[in-house]
Protein 1
Amino acid sequence: MDKKTLDELEARRAAGRRMGGPDRLERLAKQNKLDARTRLDILLDPGSFSELGVLGRSPHPDLHDRTPADGLIAGKGTIDGRLVYVCSEDASVVGGTRGRTAEAKISRLRELALKHAAPYIALMEAGAGRFQENNGAAAAAIGNRFREHMQLSGRVPQVAAIMGACFGGPSFTAAQSDFVPMTRNSGFMGMSGPAVVRVGIRKTVTPDELGGWQMSSEVTGQADYVGEDDRDVLLSIRKFLSYFPSNCDHLPPRLAPEPALCDTEDGAEALNALVPDNHRRAYDMHSLIELIVDGGQSFPFRPAYGKGLLTHFARFDGHTVGLVANNPMHWAGAMDDKAANKLRKFVDTCNAFHIPLVFLTDCPGFIVGPEIEEKRMVSLAARILNSVASSEVPKVTVVIRKAIGLAYLALGGKTMGPDRLVAWPTAQFDVMGPAAGVELTYGQQIRQADSPDDKRRELLAQAEEDASAYIAAEQGLIDDIIRPDETRATIIEALESAHATRRTGFVSRIDP
């Protein structure tokens, strides 16, 4: 082949890799942002990236020369030696707006991720679709991306990192993904950006008000993790995927087991002393988790949302688990609508990718009252029960203290089919909180007593005695009562028994 022909190819390739030019790249750096290619360098194993579509450009005559790679870097690479497909949106090209060629490249990437059963990762800093390429009747054919994401759902892990303004379509596809990390102060997601809101309802708002990191992580729960900067977000993706199989046809990877803090004499003593006998006194569930998991390390999922419930990925004896635990330091561990939404997404994700569930239960029930009813708590609670009851992964439930009513069921109660159900000596089971039960059942008797307060205390003490985990154990309603320092060994033993008979296969699609 003529050298001139080959030189032209190399020149076109080089032009496609230049991005938006030095001035625009410098502007991104001043905003404390990494450019699209540097992001890939951090995310992927060194030297593993292979690009697809570097010659792509906008077909629009006014944009052709201004759109190297059409503002989207796409291809495959590896993370910890495992294949992933990834795209990285280039904000230095036409402000990161999405072109038709870029859409075609992403569609091809999703096709390959599905065909090769590999995780799909989108590093997003996308403005809206370019109006000049998508306006008019051509809009009748938009939206392939949503069908493609649904085809991937539950089959391969999907990650959508919000690293810039991602209002509109990018936010919708992020909501279809399994993990959505966001960069603090520079990531935004929502239905529409400030300009569209101003035109649509004549209201001036800021990006933060619509979908900044606080709104997305604390109020809506649509961001699963908030990174301090781009690098933090990229490393969180590597961490998240380390707990997952590449696809639903495999079990999660098992790493070399690491000892837990509770394996030491001091750690065991700390675990035994952590939880007060008095159910009205709080303790830090984070400390309990740290004491019992491999290496004291876990990865939180939506930590700022639904704070009465903790959801973490962790390991026991090298095996990945999804940890669900109540947080007594927030509303005594009671569950609200946010905790319910978080729990359902977490359980469905774990179930789709064969990640066993470990419940550390200490919950006085669901939040009650007219405000929570307005948030459809009945429906949310019912949907949680559906998810937990239909999950096919191994489940281990350890009741720490309170196991009350339907919340207990949602947290791996007996009728949800746990592979092991044990309790600490401090545990109590009841259909509702003892105080409420006493008032409902004996209210008139209390009011007619010579000393209502003494009578109430007497009846409450009896109700709490009747709720004792020892009675549940005596009647064969739970498997055992264990010492706190036996918790880790009990969980590992239960998981080993379940692992011996596990099967893989497509389980379910995931509802965000």
Protein 2
Amino acid sequence: MTPTSPSAPATATGHARVAPRPPAGALAAGGDGDVPSLRLVRLALHAAFYALLGVALAPALLGRAPAAVLPVGAVLAAAYGAGIVRRAGRPGAWLAAVTGLWLVLLAMDRGFSYVAFPLFFLFLHALPVRWAHPAVAAATAAVVAAQGGAPGGLTVARVIGPVAGACVAILTAYGYAALYRESRKRQLLIDDLVRTRDELAAAQREAGRLAERQRLAREIHDTLAQGLSSIVLLARAAETADADAARARVREIGRTASDNLAEARRFVQELTPPALEDAPLPEALRRVTARTLPTAAFRLDGEPCPLPVETEVALLRLTQEALANVARHARADHAAVTLAYLDGQVTLDVYDDGVGFAPGHGPADGRRTFGLHGMRERIAELGGTLVVESAPGEGTAIAATLPTGPGALEAAA
């Protein structure tokens, strides 16, 4: 059955979408985007076909019907199954073969009239509307004609039964089509909602980034840039002045440079956590480890080297977040923090032997892990990677890798 589908509401991007009808052969062979309820309907149809075919073949197995129906019935069962397995690439040809075999069986034994009911659904879902309804009517007429050959001839009951079965099949197929369209519309809306949420989050992050850049640009322009401009002017004036005036200009240049150095230090202090103000990164991580989780061990591998401020801040924040999670949730006996300076990169590993959790499904206690999600984004912005390995009852390991070579500053920018 292929009734015209109503249009779905416009998506968040302003483009209207149309909820599709079930594709040709969807009920018979399965289609893309199946939902469990629709898959169950399809399986029930296949089961009904084989059940009714088995019932119709039973008299022949018992010797109460022509034995010739058995090989034809076997061929029909095989042809039907082949169409299911191959997902009916050409449903029209497959359905014609199945229908032809059924008509041969119907001519041999009117007991195969019951097999027409699942065939009605195949007609309605594998053929366009202009062919589906005439096919159902023709199959109904064939059943009525076969019943007319029964003892007693054609009666009202033998006409009403097949016609009623056809009507029920049509109404049921329309209900299935409505269910399919509704499920597809809901999936489209869910997809649009998820996409809009991701776009909104990306826009908010970008807005925050641009706002911070604009703030720093204003601060630098009003302080450092103005001071450097003054130094340039004073230096040019000193070049053409006499000795006394030149010395005065040089003293003024020194005062201006000192003021700008203080401004630069203020910027650095605003961007640097207090733990990094009076200690290098390894010592800061050692202090954070001892303060956050006294039972945790800290180890330093390799020779420390200067890192961009953003890299040191990211590693410090990751250590704080990871150790805080261990202290609050892991119930671990042992934990360790390892900072390693390697060739062209620095790595930070935080391990605990606690209860662990299933990555991607959230911790077992239901807690939310926005902290690690934010750290993964921060590490990625600096050109690094963050890997979380864990399993229920097997502890957790968090490993971050960041570049330290010439491209580290550009990655941080």
Protein 3
Amino acid sequence: MQIRISWPAGHLTATLDETPTSQAIGQVLPLVSTASTWGEEVYFDTGVSVPREPGAQQVVEPGTVAFWTDGDALALPYGPTPISRGDECRLASPCNLLGRIDGDPRTLATVRAGDPVRVELVEG
């Protein structure tokens, strides 16, 4: 499944694996939310509540599409967060792994806290 994430200064696409969480998110698309930032991570509420999956991780690669079960939010890290050690992407808590951003995840640096964010399915 491919999704498009748009905000006032840009957009990107991401490819999601088939997981229970990505399927739950697919059910609510398109969705509109408000961006928050935490270090070099963008996250936003989805209105979807799912349990933490086996294999959830706290330290991920830049460009990972993750789901923060504690906040019902998509988490999109592109660099260090306030709790990272060195250059790692350390999320607030273990998150369900959904897929990868296509292209350069640093595009997310143009997202500002409070920006409207839209997530929609890319029709293939």
Protein 4
Amino acid sequence: MFKRARIAAKSAEWRSTFARRVLIVLLAVSLLPAVAGSVEAKDPLLAYGARIVGDDARSRIVIDFDREPRFSVHYIANPERIVIDLPATAFGFPAKDLAARGLFKDIRYGKMDEESARIVLTTAGPVKLALAKVQADESGKGHRLVLDAEMIDKQAFAELVKTQSWSDQSEAAQTTSAIPAPEKTAPGDFVIAVDAGHGGIDTGAIGVDTKTEEKQVTLAFAKALTERLNKEPGIKAFLTREDDEFLSLSQRVLIARQNHAGLLISLHADTLKQKDIRGATVYTISDKASDKLAADLAERENLSDQIAGKETVAEPPEVADILLDLTRRETQAFSISLAESVLNSFKDQVGTINNPHRHAGFRVLQAPDVPSILLELGFLSNAEDEKLLLDETWRGKIVGLLTEAVKRYRAAVIANGG
């Protein structure tokens, strides 16, 4: 009798825990922008549990799913990473349950697009999966993905990278899909690409108090700014991403260029180790950073593709030099003009850091024919900035000031025959 009671109690406890996790995921999914007809909206996989064990020689990851997942495994060098691609998946387990340890120094997971998700395991050295399989849960509760990783030498890892067959499906799908465009563009319209930084698997910074993800903050500001700009006669704005999806840095630039944008405004809200630093900053592109803060920020922002498990394709130095030279000669002066217009709007209205116009080699600003700025709206590492970044009234104020800055910039361009 007591044995049956204990079994019943454990069963009830499991059902309660599982129900709570499902509720958490459903709530999280309900907060995401609705996409009519999307795979995720219809029936994503549910990853409701995760655990990791091991040391610096061998580590095991187990992820519990509500049903059997299809998956593929790939290896990327420089730095060494293991990429696990999945169908659309809602991740409902606490982040601490899959905190990096053992052979892994960083673990990221999240949405890539409407039909796919990804887990990126950045390793402490050359590593391979000795075992990667899906097995049914013994109790019939679902399926689990089991990944056993072990240390190997550099030559063996290089051979894994070399011999695998892999085309990045998420990149291919997004590159060939319809590019977002402004609605009802008329001849002579001033077209603006509004870029919400980060997205999907790349969460960006995390709020110090609320733990809000940067990708949510930037998308909220981008949507509000686009809506406000589109109320102005002769101005048509569009979003580079309209929901929580990952876009590579090169895709963001391509979207702006193929829509013949006259401006690209990339929105961010970073974190700093110095929690007391707060305020907005406007960045333009340069081959040499204005200071260490700008250099560090550019380095972090340029890691977006790496975080998402993209292969790094190094451009020949002469190509990079040509692009940068074109950017400097054709558009840098316009970018600086826009930055100054934004800061003039912010003056006595919005707090900024010291020397608020800075520059560095941001890849998202490298369009050779599109004047571009990267606007740090504030720092999620500062509690006061975080409150403002989440305040709808303050968001409206920033959007209004940015719109006025764009209007003054456009008037100056038209006056100069542009």
